[in-house]
Predict the structure.
Amino acid sequence: SPQVSEEFLVREFGKFGDIASVKIMWPRTQEEHNRQRNCGFVSFMKRPDAEDAIKELQGRDFYGMPMRLGWGKKVSLPSQPLRIPKQGETLGQMMAATAPVIEQALEIPSDAPRHKVVLPSDRKVGRLIGKLASYVAKHGHVFEKAVMNKEMKNPKFFFLFQVHTPEHLYYRWKVYMLSQGDSEAKWREEPFQMLLGGPYWIPPKLEDVKKQTAAAEEASQSKEEDRGRSPQRRRDRRDRDRGSRDSRRDRRKRGSSRRLRSRERDEFEDRLRGLSLNKTKIAYGMGFALDHAEEAKEIVEIITESLSLDETPIPKKVARLFLVSDILYNSTAPVRNASAYRTEFRDKLPKIFECLHRTYKSIEGRITANAMRERVTKVLRVWQGWSLYPES
């Protein structure tokens, strides 16, 4: 029930044993508020106490709603359990009266778990984490989940999944820090706990970060000066830049001529074979296509060929058409050569729809045929709304 508070949970669950930590995930969006129910986490110092609590409180009515209980993930335990709040005393008041003053690092219990936050040694990684953390702090867990799904195989985002690495700890602190009102230029340096009874987080010192950043910028500037000191080197760099621009201009004129490596082609063909109407799988395929936009011509050929096979099951063909639609929609993204997909697909679409029409005519069941026609027609209506191609 939304009326259940953390103090209430400590009192009710504390009847069964010592409580290590309590946390309610309060609603942040209007949609979450409209659900009229919250979820929370209660950690016991001893597992048998938690088993007794689940057995006794499962389904019990509180504030007009039944409480549903289940097991969560294992968490680190504090050195001391929470005290049961007095009647009328809030959990915050109780913690202020009994807990160590966390602003003073020396008062952190000696056996308490702690996370010391350090800046990534790679400045590019630090900038990527900072940018992602700012978006997650603004848009919440849903945005973070979408990024994790899309970038699951991207090495640059491995810090999201490697939870015990310094980069992941830096990212978690950064998200929390920004969501609490701190900024990139100034943050609170005192140790703190994100969750009651959880590990102590020790932020980096602002002065140390400024010195480290200044040293890195000075080293980078020195390298640039050394690189540009020679007049001949400057002339060579101008020639290379001019040649690169000419090369890109020629490639745009004649279309992408790059080819996928054998491993990349096998990976994309495996994705097509495993494609279904699942949105996540289609999104992965679209992401691969954008990441390899320089090889747009070959990717379009592979998709066209996969849609031309008569033995392909109908749901898989429809899923591949949805993939085509997603790629075309994102062909306006600020990705190099992404626009080539519109050009390449424009020449292949007649063949694709000719094959789809042949498949449609071969369907014996009326319900299956109508379902396929409805989905294909829906795609065409969407394209018409995008003004994807001239109607002629």
The first helix runs from residue 6 to 13. The beta strands are 19-25, 39-44, 61-62, 65-66, 114-116, 192-193, 200-202.
